[in-house]
Structures are given as structure tokens and as C-alpha cells.
């Protein structure tokens, strides 16, 4: 079976974790975590990077640090992974679903029509930047706090800066299917010293400096571990290589896929493809293509359903979600692992091109 995505673990990764285990370190966050944070912050060009257990908690803490609370309205694109909206619900705020454009990112035109927003979360979905910069401009002008959920987009660039730099805060995720992984893991990025300080305290029981057991208010334990950071540092050392690999996979599909039932969704040169995706003619084609490929030992995955189609979110549905609601079920994610070999890509494209219904 060729899987849709698999983590890539190298000998260097194994050595890094094993060296750390042999070093007598205390496992929880300390020097390795600091180094991992510093390297990510230097790579992206953002002043502060704070490691947390996962991307969902990163969004939650980002919202919390901005003072988003019960009843505040927070815009979210109608196509994104469930964590983006669940973090908003977790904080008690009210999600406002916004339709997406053809690049599957939040639509600037729809966004501009929405009143009374406290915050917005822009998602450069699948490594595509959409109109993120225009959304940032609008947010600044209208005093809307902006979080960039950059879980898919480490390596992608906007016009003049890296993804991970948009808005007041950005977040990353390091689950096994991301471009680098720490098993689970997340990072919050900001240039704002006050927000960074606040988040560092919130993730560590809101503890006063030193080893004090006096606390300045509510706080939980969202610390990282040096054990994960050892893996993260080793993975980060080949980020550029991974970016090149993702681009090569994309170029291969782009060059070889030829079938009237679907087409590869394009990426710009500054974008790093995360999952390679095709847009099929309709949901029936998408479903049949998925089944056909499984029969041929090729795993694919359906893209996220529109949030407004999730039953548990039905109270947030609105009338302006036509594009996302009519497109979400036509997108199929193709095999996109960093370890894909050329002969596997050839098999996948051969099978894709022979598909008919
Ligand atoms: C767009 C997006 N945001 C947030 C998350 C949540 O990250 P995590 O799984 O690390 O909690 C994910 C996870 O894949 C994601 O795809």
C-alpha cells in the first residue's frame, strides 16, 4: 500500500533522540526546547517562538493571550481542520464562518462584509497563501486581532515574508504528517513581547518567576518536552530538503496527471505544497476515484468537509458559504509523503490516468 502520508524518520533522528536519552536530561522542556524555539524563530524571522504540546493548544493560547472571551466574534474560514474552530469554541467565543476562494483560503470579499469581529483566524490552507496579506491589512485598519493558523505552511512565503509572520500571532503544528514532526507538538510565534510573556506564563501554571509555587492567576500545564525537541531539531535540520522534496512531488504530479475527470490544484513558486490535491468534477467522481485507488493499493484522503456541514456546528451555518459548501466534497488529497519514491509516483500517475467511470 502506498499511504497518503507517512512520517519520515531518519537515522539522524533516531541518533538525536537516543543521544538525548543517554545524556541524563530531565526529558521535560529545558535547553533543547529553547534551542528548538530559537531556531524556528530565526528561520521564520519572528521574535518569539513558544513551544506547546500541539497546534490546537497553540491556537487556544493565542486566543487567550489576546483576551478573546465568551461571546466575542471570531472569523474562521469554512474549510479548515476542525482544530481551528474548536479552539474558538473552547475559549467560549462565537465562530463566524467565512466562505473561501478558489485557493481554499478565507475570502477577502466575504470577510470584509462581516461586522463586529474581535478577531480572525486566517489559515494558509495546504501551504497556499490566498489573500492573507490583504486580510492582515483589513484587520489592522479595523482593529481586528489576527491569528495565522500556519499548521500546514512551514516553509511557504508570502510576498515579502515567511508564513508564520502574519497578524498578531501565528501557530505551527508538528504532528507526524507535517513537514517536520515531533510526534505531537505546536509552536506560537509573535513579535509582541507582552503577548509572548503572557503565553509563557499561561502555559506554565501562571507561575511566578523561579521555582515559586505562587501563581499570578489561572494557568495550565502546556509545556513541551526536550525529548520532542531533540527530534524537532534533527527534523528542522532538513527542512529545506523536505521543502524541495514536496515541490518535486508536486512537479511530478503536475507534469504527469492527465485525466478529464480531475485536475491537480496548482501552487505558486513561493508556496510549499503540503498535501498534493486534485479537484474532481463532482463528489461522485471523488468518491469513485478514492475507491478505485484503494483497490490499487493507493491510499488517498478526502479534504476537510466544510465546517458548516458538521452537524455539531449547524448553529453557525450562514447563507454566504456557497463556494465552500459546493466544493469541499470534490477535493481529494493524493499521496504526499516525503519518502515517496519516483517509481511509486509513476505507479500513482499511471493509475490516476487510467481512471474512468
Ligand atoms: C489547519 C490546522 N490547524 C490546526 C491543527 C491542529 O494541530 P494539532 O493536530 O497539532 O493540534 C491542524 C492539525 O493538523 C491543522 O491542520
Please write the CATH class name of the largest domain: Alpha Beta
| CATH level-4 homologous superfamily of the largest domain | Type I PLP-dependent aspartate aminotransferase-like (Major domain)
As a whole number of angstroms, the C-alpha radius of gyration is 21 Å
Q: In what range is the share of β-strand residues?
A: 5-15%
CATH topology call of the largest domain: Aspartate Aminotransferase, domain 2
Which architecture of the largest domain per CATH? 3-Layer(aba) Sandwich
- Shape category: globular
The whole-number mean of residue pLDDT values reads 98
SSE topology:
Layout: H1 11-22, H2 31-44, E1 48-52, H3 55-65, E2 73-77, H4 82-91, E3 94-98, H5 108-112, E4 119-122, H6 132-141, E5 145-149, E6 169-173, E7 186-190, H7 193-202, H8 226-236, H9 239-256, E8 262-264, E9 277-280, H10 283-295, E10 301-302, H11 322-327, E11 331-333, H12 342-354
Parallel strand pairs: 2-3, 2-4, 4-5, 5-6
Antiparallel strand pairs: 1-7, 6-7, 8-9, 9-11, 10-11
Pyridoxal-5'-phosphate binds next to helix 3 and helix 4.
Amino acid at each position: 500500500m502506498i499511504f497518503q502520508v507517512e512520517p519520515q524518520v531518519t537515522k539522524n533522528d533516531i541518533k538525536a533522540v537516543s543521544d538525548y536519552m543517554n545524556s541524563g536530561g530531565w526529558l521535560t522542556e529545558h535547553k533543547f526546547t529553547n534551542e528548538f524555539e530559537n531556531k524556528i524563530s530565526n528561520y521564520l524571522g519572528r521574535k518569539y517562538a513558544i513551544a506547546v504540546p500541539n497546534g490546537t493548544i497553540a491556537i487556544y493560547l493565542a486566543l487567550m493571550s489576546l483576551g478573546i472571551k465568551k461571546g466575542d466574534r471570531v472569523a474562521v474560514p469554512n474549510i479548515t481542520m476542525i482544530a481551528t474552530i474548536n479552539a474558538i469554541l473552547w475559549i467560549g467565543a462565537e465562530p463566524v464562518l467565512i466562505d473561501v476562494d478558489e485557493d481554499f483560503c478565507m475570502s477577502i470579499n466575504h470577510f470584509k462584509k462581516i461586522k463586529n469581529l474581535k478577531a480572525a483566524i486566517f489559515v494558509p490552507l495546504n501551504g497556499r497563501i490566498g489573500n492573507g496579506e490583504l486580510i492582515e491589512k483589513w484587520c489592522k485598519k479595523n482593529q481586528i486581532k489576527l491569528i495565522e493558523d500556519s499548521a500546514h505552511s512551514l516553509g511557504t512565503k508570502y510576498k515579502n515574508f515567511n508564513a508564520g509572520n502574519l497578524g498578531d500571532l501565528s501557530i505551527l503544528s508538528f504532528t507526524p504528517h507535517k513537514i517536520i514532526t515531533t510526534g505531537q507538538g505546536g509552536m506560537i510565534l509573535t513579535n509582541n513581547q507582552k503577548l509572548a510573556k503572557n503565553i509563557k506564563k499561561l502555559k506554565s501554571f501562571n507561575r511566578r518567576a523561579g521555582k515559586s509555587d505562587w501563581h499570578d492567576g489561572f494557568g495550565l500545564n502546556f509545556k513541551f518536552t526536550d525529548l520532542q525537541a531533540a527530534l524537532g531539531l534533527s527534523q528542522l535540520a532538513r527542512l529545506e530538503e523536505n521543502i524541495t522534496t514536496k515541490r518535486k512531488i508536486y512537479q511530478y504530479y503536475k507534469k504527469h496527471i492527465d485525466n478529464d475527470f480531475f485536475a491537480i490544484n496548482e501552487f505558486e513558486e513561493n508556496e510549499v505544497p503540503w498535501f498534493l490535491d486534485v479537484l474532481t468534477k463532482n463528489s461522485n467522481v471523488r468518491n469513485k476515484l478514492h475507491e478505485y485507488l484503494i483497490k490499487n493499493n493507493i491510499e488517498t484522503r478526502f479534504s476537510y468537509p466544510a465546517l458548516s456541514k458538521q452537524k455539531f456546528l449547524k448553529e453557525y451555518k450562514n447563507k454566504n458559504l456557497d463556494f465552500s459548501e459546493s466544493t469541499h466534497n470534490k477535493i481529494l488529497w493524493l499521496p504526499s509523503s516525503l519518502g515517496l519514491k519516483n517509481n511509486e509516483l509513476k505507479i500513482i500517475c499511471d493509475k490516476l490516468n487510467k481512471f474512468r467511470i
